[in-house]
Amino acid sequence: MTSDTFLGAVNTRFKLDPANARLLIVGLGATGYSAAQFLQQTPIKFAVIDSRSHPPQIDCLREQMPDVPVFSGGFDQSAFEVATHLLVSPGVSLNEKAILKAMRAGVTVISDIDLFACATDKPIIAITGSNGKSTVTTMLGEMGNAAGLRTAIGGNLGTPALDLLQQDADLYVLELSSFQLERTSALNAAAATVLNLSADHLDRHANMSGYAQEKQRIFRGDGAMILNADDPMVMAMLEADRTHFSFSVRRPADFYLRRGDSDCLMFKDEVMMSADELNLEGSHNIANALASLALGHAVGLDMNAMCRALRKFKGLPHRMQKVAEIRGVRWVNDSKATNIGACIAALQGYERKVILLAGGDGKGADMAELQAIVREKTKAVVLMGKDAGLIDRALAHCVPTHFAANMREAVAIAARLAEPGDSVLLSPACASLDQYKSYVDRGNQFAQAVLELS
User: Fold this and answer.
1) What does the pLDDT read at residue 299?
2) What are phi and psi of 358, to 5 degrees?
3) 131 is in an annotated binding site
4) 413 vs 411: CA distance, rounded Å
5) 349 and 364 in contact (C-beta within 8 Å)?
6) 411 — phi, psi (to 5°)?
7) Is 292 annotated among the ligand-binding residues?
C-alpha cells in the first residue's frame, strides 16, 4: 500500500489530516516505540508522553528521533490539550484522568492496530480469547507458511503489529488482547475468533460483561467469524448473516473432535487427521488446533498443508510444556496459565488426577471457580505466592492443600507427594509478578527445580 493510500485511509476514518492533526502517543513501551518509528516515516506530526520518569524505550527514541518531543515523569496536561488524537498503548488504562479529560473534550483515541489496518490491504487473521491466543497465532503462522504464503505473526505476541509491515507478508496473523481491542475500531479482519472467555483482567474491566464486550470488538467488519461452540458467551456473539464456522471438542460442529477408538479432528464429515498425531497435551490444545484449522480454512489455506503443519507443531514454552519424567512422574510447565480459565482448561485435559502447583496474584478473580475442577482432577494442591491463603479458603479443603514459600519448596513438596504414573502440573491460575519477573521467569524456575530432582 502506498503512503498516499494510507494517509487517505486514516484521514477518512479518523480525520487524521497531517496538515491539522497533532497526535500524542501515550506510553513508551514496545507498542509506543513501534508507533513512533512508523509515524516517523509519515508527515503526521506527533509527540510522546509517559508517566514514568525513564520509560523502557526513551533512550532509543531520543537517539533515533531526536526531534520528536518527549514528555516523561507524569502526564503533562498541556500535552493532552494540544493533541487532536491520542494513540494509547495497551498498558495504559483509558480511565487515566488526563485521557478521560481529553476524550470528553473530543480528542479521538486510536491504537497501533488501527494504523496497521489502514496501512495494509493484505488479509489479516485476528485472534483473541482468555486462553490459547499465542498457541493459535503460532499454529496459524506455521500453517500459512506451509501453504506457501509469507506469513507474519505478532501483535500482543512478540513483534508489535506495525513492525510486521516491514516483512511485506502475504498474510498477517495478529494476537490481540482486550486492552488492544478496547481502543481499536478500524480493524476488519478477513477471519477473526474469540477462542473462549473466562475471568481475566477484572482489575481493568468492570465485570465479565464488559470484558466480553471488548473481546467482541474483534468481529467488527464483514470477515468470517470463528466461534467456540463449547462456550455460550462466545456463541452469543454470532451474527447469523455473516460467514461463520464453529469448532468444538464436545459436540458436532463445522470443525470438531470425533471421539472413538481413534479420536479424529473432523471438518464436517471429513476426517482431517488423528488426534494422536498432535504433539500437544490436553483437550484444550485440540480445541486450539480446531480453531486454527477453521481460521485457516476461512482465508483459503490448503487443508493438507495445515494438517502437515499441525503434525510438526511442538507447542510453545510455558504452555503445557513437558519438562521431564523422573522416576515415573511427569512434570508439566504451564506457567502461562495466568488466570482461572487457563488453569481449568489445563486440568480438563487430564484423565488421571494430578498434583497441582498454583498461586500468585489472582488479580481479583473469584478463586471459588476452581473448586469443582480441583476436586475432580487433582489429588493435592501446592499453593504459593500473594494469594495462596485466598485460594486455600476458596477451595474449602476439597483436596489436601500444602503451602510453599517459593518454587523450589513447592517442587520438593510435590516430589514427596507424587507416585509413579502421576503428573505434577504447574498451572498457577494467577499472575506472576508478586514473586517473579514474569511468567517466563516463573516457568524457568520451575523447570530448574524439577531438573535438580534428578
Assistant:
1) 98
2) -145, 170
3) yes
4) 5
5) no
6) -65, -40
7) no
**Residue 15 annotated to the active site:** no
Phi (first) and psi of residue 151, to 5 degrees = -115, 130
Is 137 marked as a binding-site residue?
A: no
328 annotated as belonging to a binding site for a ligand: no
* Strands 244-248 and 151-155, sheet pairing: unpaired
Structure confidence at residue 24 (pLDDT): 98
Q: Report residue 108 as a C-alpha cell.
A: 479521538
134 known member of a binding site: yes
Q: What are 298-336's pLDDT values in tens digits? A: 999 999 999 999 999 988 889 888 899 999 999 999 999
- Does the annotation count 133 as an active-site position? yes
For the domain made up of 321-453, give the CATH fold: Protein-Tyrosine Phosphatase; Chain A (3.90.190)
Pick the CATH number of 116-312 from 3.40.50.300, 3.40.50.720, 3.40.640.10, 3.40.1190.10: 3.40.1190.10
Q: Residues 200-229, buried b or exposed e (16+ Cβ, 10 A)? A: bbbebbeeeeebbebbbbbbbbebbbbbbb
Position 204 pLDDT exceeds 60: no
126 closest CA partner among 153, 158, 88:
153
How far from each other are the two terminal CA atoms of the chain, in whole angstroms?
56
188 among the known binding-site residues?
A: no
Active-site residue, selected from the candidate residues 85, 196, 201, 402: 201
Cα radius of gyration rounded to whole Å, the chain: 23
Q: Phi and psi dihedrals of 424, rounded to 5?
A: -110, 120
Query: Residues 156, 228, 285, 444: which is the catalytic one?
Result: 156
Q: Which residue has the cell 500444602?
A: 402
Name the pTM for this structure: 0.84
What are the residues facing 47 on neighbouring strands? 24
- Classify domain 15-110 at the CATH topology level: Rossmann fold (3.40.50)
Place of cell 480446531: 290
**Per the annotation, does 341 bind a ligand?**
no
